[in-house]
Model the fold of this input.
Amino acid sequence: MNHTWPISTVGDAARARITTARVAAAYGVPPLERTRMAAALGARLRQCLSKGGSWRFVLTVARGSLTVEVSPSPADGERPWCVTAACPEPAADPVRDAAADDAPALAEALLGADEDTALVLERLAEQEEFVAFHREELHQTNQGVLALHAELDASGRAQREAFAAERAARREAEDARRRLTFLADASATLTASLNHEEIARLLPELLVPEYARTADVWLFDAEDERASSVPRAAAAVIAARTGRPQYAAAHPGGLPGVDDQPPSALHPGRSLLCVPLPTRGAPLGVVTLTAPGERWNPDDAVMLVELTRRAGGALDNARRFEHNRDIAETLQRALLTDLPATPGLRLAARYLPATYGLNVGGDWYDAFRQPDGSLITVIGDVTGHGLHAAVMMSQLRTALRAYAVDGGSPGKLLTRLHMFLEHLQPDLYATAVIARFRPGEPVLTWAAAGHPPPVLRGPDGRVRILDAKPGAMLGIPLHQEIADHTVPLDPGSTLALYTDGLVERRAQGIDPGIERLATALGSFGAEELDADLDGSAERILDPMLSDSERDDDVCLLLCHVGSPAGGPRGGRPRSGS
Done:
């Protein structure tokens, strides 16, 4: 269907608009589409009337669509305006009926309403688009917010899990550091002592109460009658017999290297850890620990086993040290010389073994007569300590006495000792001072080889340090002839021979100690030395050793020349512990 007519007046425009609306309704165009088409057509026709001239209106219905076209009658180059709507249903031609209405006022009103309606519809369309846009935006936002919440929840859970894992790792690291620190400190404390009784006492003090409620140290070879009657837990007896740690509790411990045992009848309801004290051979004993709480933390239990094993090593070292020290000290004391009695000369000697470390055995003194009646006094120090030094000291003492039988001055005796050490003991060195007293001769002959110089007190109280050039240390790979030195010796004079343990201090050296000895010797009166030489030796040692750690042997030999009225008086050596 195709209808065409001219538009030149308001009435023509109204009929065109009404006809379009009726045709659209007749052909089933939806109301909203009809309203939009009518509004758009009314607005267009109003524009055409405002421009003036003649316009052509064409209404076409074909192939399920309704098309309205408005164009100028004479072609003036302006493109035609058209609008199209779908027609779902065919109908009778309503154009003829629309032509019957010819009310100019109605037409004017319809055109005005169409224009307003067109504006409203246009704004409604804009609002619909705007609402649709915001609805879609709100939907996307809601989806994003939901996704963000889900992501935040997942991130929060992951973060909480990470924090928990970090706290657990930090706690484990702190516990491990605490155990390692305790193990290192406790091991250092135990190994610092060379007294096995002190180590056995320190071990419980280190463990109670933090790591054990009680700690019992069972040493096999140190039991007296009272201790031997003390009942022992079955797990401790098994540990002593097998040499393996035992864990006795209601529930297995599952500790590496530790055997599980039933609960102890002596300690029901408590967990016991019985660890042997190992040595190179059989165990020295067993340490029995009771748990500070219901049971031990497995890592703490492993640390306790390791500490007890280290304590066993410390005990073994201490006992070996004590054994070697006892042998060396016994040998040293057995070789102490009975001082000979000589007319006009009194002797007093003191020997103190070292109280710190295995340092006994290197120092010695001696006094004996030569065939011509001269008295030889000697004091020396063998390098090294312990049993080997004590044995070598005895060999030097014997060699010196053998050389002295052939006579010879102190320098010659030291020279022969030097050759003896250089050829027979090339890895051994020694220092020594030899002083010779001849009856009726007011001269002291002496020689030194690498040893602290003798100190001589005159009868007037003045003290001299006999620091004439000494020979080198005995035994060094060097050919040397050690020279003799002489000094006048008046009645009432006192000669002090000593080893470096008396005067040397690590922080001060040896010279200040020699000056202190000279001062101490000069503080005595001649009558005091004549009356009690032994007591004078004691009074010298007390102030000299008050600041000493006694980490070396100490020897002191006093030789006092008395008046002839004093008679032949000798003395026996005295030693301190």
Q: What stands out?
A: The mean pLDDT is 83.
